[in-house]
Task: inverse folding
């Protein structure tokens, strides 16, 4: 299968072709300015590639319900040139199915088909960076609901050591207001990337992320939580979050180990998208993991959307 | 269709027959003691009734994955006589399909087919009583994940007026530890049912329940949240929870109104299971609602499970 994918971010769009094993065959990118400037090179590229389907993981809010007439339209975004832009219409000339998802739902599907949750029916992908956002796979289906999950603005308990008011313009001290990259910078007066691995910032950050993981676990009974995004480049955070999650759960829930979730890893794996290998000593090591696809999770996720649309309709 | 249903609670089991419109034709009950005492009258009843399928909404934890060999088994319960009890085996002699769910997942399905969320693909049912537990419907599918959603032990922020340590043996001051019926009684020294409608207990209770609703909304993007159980007999709580939810969300999410979620109410309604009529002035009035099936939500939910199994397999 020859498939097209677009990872549509707020600063750049990464696009390319690949196949149903998650292998990226070619990758390009273009700056995200306006549809008039950004889209033509992507359209021209796909017109020359004979793809069977195109998957798009897009910044939002976006209409992801295929039963709506405005399926694939970008809704009320602050990026005003893109408000009302419709992905399926933009690629109509290519003459193949165009499947649209949020960027984080594309990423969670990519990770579940080819990455850190390969073979799992239920997992969550959360990116912690400029903002906090998440995608949810439940019973093999991407969760949409009324629009799509947000996760970032969840209410969490303030860490007792934390006197920072919080940076969210809506809620001040919601999760995103306390634990996004900009929140870390505002609180400590320094970019997170400039703080030492043993800086107290990271224990506090882990506390907030652990509360999020606990609440996701209790609501979804999910099998794996993948934490990505710029803040998670601080790799020491993974163990800190795992420790705090165990403390918060206090034995109430038995976290899944690899053994009881990896029913069968039936997704094809390949050279450019190898998941991290886990040889977990504790169940929490297998439960809270980094993305397996690294920087490719967006584009591979878009290819996964396209691949899945050839197997089952986007419902 | 002639269908059987069992609402298996910790103190009694309600069982009966009904049809695919959610109509209950006959209803009986028996005390929950041990499988040896409790099950024979239910089995005898179904053997005499020629049912096409039996739905069971059971106390848990319970194995709800139909691909597991122990599908329908009660797992590690403190009700020791029931540990390892297998529902499908108990009714094998009837010779019809037996579909098993948690009590709250049965209730959410019943409400989505015939009750307060009739016609919606995405909703949550939470019961607030001796404990707090919830069931989740997402994209028309009941969420299972690793086992099934719990919801009750979610982490919430302590209300600034609250000096009660919390009553959860695992987490002390998780949602259930702060907001279940026993928590209300421990905090105020009086059963909730004996507290006046304007007692400060209810503002505090509403704060905790609103935090739960906010987090459910952000994780699931759900279309409706149904709050039931003994504590919600304090009907003034609904408006208090709606007010607090609006305050917490602070305009970040536009709550669904009836207009944009009630795509088509295609479930059959009937005399004994009429949903409450909502003529909401604010979207939150339609978003946070009481059960439409009242005391019948468990049994009607079990019938809904049976009805759905004749239309689609339990996946």
Result:
């Amino acid at each position: 299968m020859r498939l097209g994918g677009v990872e549509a971010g707020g600063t750049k769009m990464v696009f390319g072709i690949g196949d149903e094993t998650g292998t990226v065959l070619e990758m390009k990118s273009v700056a995200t300015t306006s549809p008039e400037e950004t889209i033509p090179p992507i359209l021209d590229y796909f017109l020359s590639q004979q793809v069977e389907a195109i998957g798009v993981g897009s910044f939002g809010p976006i209409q992801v319900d295929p039963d709506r007439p405005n399926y694939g339209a970008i809704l009320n975004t602050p990026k005003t040139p893109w408000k009302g832009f419709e992905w399926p219409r933009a690629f109509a000339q290519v003459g193949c199915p165009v499947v649209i998802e949020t960027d984080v739902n594309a990423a969670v599907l990519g990770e579940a088909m080819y990455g850190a949750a390969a073979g799992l029916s239920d997992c969550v992908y959360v990116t912690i960076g400029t903002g906090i956002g998440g995608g949810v796979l439940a019973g093999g289906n991407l969760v949409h609901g009324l629009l799509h999950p947000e996760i970032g603005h969840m209410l969490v308990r303030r860490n007792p050591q934390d006197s920072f008011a919080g940076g969210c313009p809506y809620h001040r001290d919601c999760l995103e207001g306390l634990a996004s990259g900009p929140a870390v910078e505002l609180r400590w007066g320094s970019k997170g990337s400039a703080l030492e691995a043993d800086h107290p910032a990271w224990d506090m950050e882990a506390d907030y992320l652990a509360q999020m993981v606990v609440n996701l676990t209790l609501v979804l009974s999910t099998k794996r939580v993948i934490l990505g995004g710029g803040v998670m480049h601080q790799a020491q955070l993974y163990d800190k979050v795992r420790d705090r999650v165990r403390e918060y759960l206090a034995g109430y829930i038995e976290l899944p180990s690899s053994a009881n979730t990896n029913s069968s890893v039936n997704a094809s794996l390949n050279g450019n998208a190898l998941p991290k290998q886990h040889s977990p000593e504790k169940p929490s090591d297998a439960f809270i993991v980094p993305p397996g696809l690294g920087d490719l999770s967006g584009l591979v996720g878009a290819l996964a959307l396209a691949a899945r649309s050839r197997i089952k309709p986007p419902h």
Remarks:
- The interface with chain A takes residues 122, 134, 136, 138-139, 141, 143-158, 170-171, 211, 214-216, 218-223, 248-253, 256, 260-261, 315 of chain B (CB under 8 Å).
